[in-house]
Each structure stands twice: as structure tokens, then as C-alpha cells.
Design goal:
Low-confidence stretches: 1-5
CATH architecture of the largest domain: Orthogonal Bundle
Number of domains: 2
Largest sheet: none
Strand content: under 5%
Radius of gyration: 20 Å
CATH topology of the largest domain: Tetracycline Repressor, domain 2
């Protein structure tokens, strides 16, 4: 069955929702198709009709969650009135999406299963900061031409900014050292990153 018809199928949605709950609670190793069947409220034969193995089901859950991440990162147009406002908007959207508890749970389970599913790491990267990276690089190239900032390598600068926003907070949330930043904490993280970035790429 084609992936598109799977995505539009209510039974598949129920299976994926049940599998998501089971995998996130028990991990890949602790999950069974019996658990998924019970959580989804469908028969085992229905699960196997769409997903022939636990591996296939896990991959489908990860990809579905990644699509949600992409939707979260790709919201409204990033450009705002000033460079400072635009960078702030990007930073806050990244923190809200990438550090959400569901995104952290997804990242933990993919890291744990990386040796078994090596391709899923790239899927996570493509769904997380990568879409915003391209959009931000395009914006930085534009404002550099206008003279608002001096950005010789837009893609490198975009990676620089995203790393400044996410690095410490993402690692601490991933390890459970800190909870997801609240609105004030997120603003503080982003404001510091924006200030440092604007100093580094000032045209003067």
C-alpha cells in the first residue's frame, strides 16, 4: 500500500497513535506488537496488514513525528521588521518546537536505537533545525546584500545562530537536567543569542 494512502487511513492513524504511546513509554526494545494492538484498539492482524514488522512500525512512527516537527518549525514567514526581531522569532520558534517534551522523547528514542536504525538520525536532522537553517540562510544572504548585516557565508552563519540558541538548552533538556524553558527563560536564551550574533555579524 502506498505511503500516501496509509497516511490518509484512519486505521493507520490509530495504529500510529497507539505505537507512538507504546514506543515513547517503553522504548523500542520494551515495546511489543501486542502492546501496540491494545493501545490502538485494533486487532493484531490489522497492525500487520499495514506494518509487517515492529521495525517498520517504529520507522513509521518516527517519520510521522518528524513531519510534525517540520510543520512546527515551518510556521509563519520568519522575516519581521528588523534583523533583531527576525532572529528572535526564529530562536523562539526553534526552542518551542525542538525542546518540546514530545520532540525530546523522540530524540531520546532515536538516539537509543541509532545502531539499529542508522538512517533515522538524518531524518531527525532534516525534520528539526534543517528546514529553518535554509530559510534563515536565505534571509541572512538578503539582509547582507542590503547592508544590514555582514554575512559572507549565510549557511555557516545560520548554523552558528541555531547552535547558539539550541546547544546548552537542548543538551540539558535531553539529559533531563532541566525542564523545557518557560516563556521568560526562552526569551532570555534567545535574547542572549541574538545579541551575540548581531555583534559578530555587524556591518561596522
Amino acid at each position: 500500500m502506498a505511503a500516501g494512502s496509509k497516511d490518509a487511513n484512519p486505521k493507520v492513524e490509530k495504529i500510529l497513535a497507539g505505537a507512538r504511546a507504546v514506543f515513547f513509554e517503553h522504548g523500542f526494545g520494551g515495546a511489543t506488537t501486542d502492546m501496540v494492538q491494545q493501545a490502538a484498539g485494533v486487532s493484531k492482524s490489522t497492525v500487520y496488514a499495514y506494518f509487517p514488522s515492529k521495525d517498520a512500525l517504529f520507522i513509521a512512527v518516527v517519520r510521522a513525528e518528524c513531519r510534525k516537527l517540520i510543520e512546527g518549525v515551518h510556521g509563519e514567514r520568519i522575516q519581521a521588521r528588523t534583523s533583531r526581531d527576525t532572529l528572535s522569532r526564529v530562536g523562539l520558534r526553534l526552542l518551542e518546537t525542538i525542546l518540546a517534551p514530545s520532540a525530546m522523547a523522540l530524540l531520546r528514542i532515536v538516539i537509543a536505537e541509532a545502531p539499529r536504525f542508522p538512517d533515522l538520525g538524518g531524518t531527525i536532522c532534516e525534520a528539526g533545525s534543517a528546514p529553518m537553517h535554509q530559510e534563515l540562510a536565505d534571509y541572512l544572504a538578503e539582509v547582507s546584500l542590503q547592508g544590514d548585516l555582514r554575512v559572507d557565508e549565510p549557511h555557516k552563519a545560520a548554523r552558528h545562530f541555531i547552535a547558539m540558541v539550541l546547544h546548552d538548552a537542548q543538551m540539558e533538556c535531553l539529559l533531563g537536567i532541566r525542564p523545557t524553558p518557560d516563556a521568560d527563560q526562552a526569551r532570555e536564551i534567545v535574547d542572549a543569542a541574538v545579541a551575540d550574533f548581531l555583534r559578530a555579524y555587524s556591518p561596522s
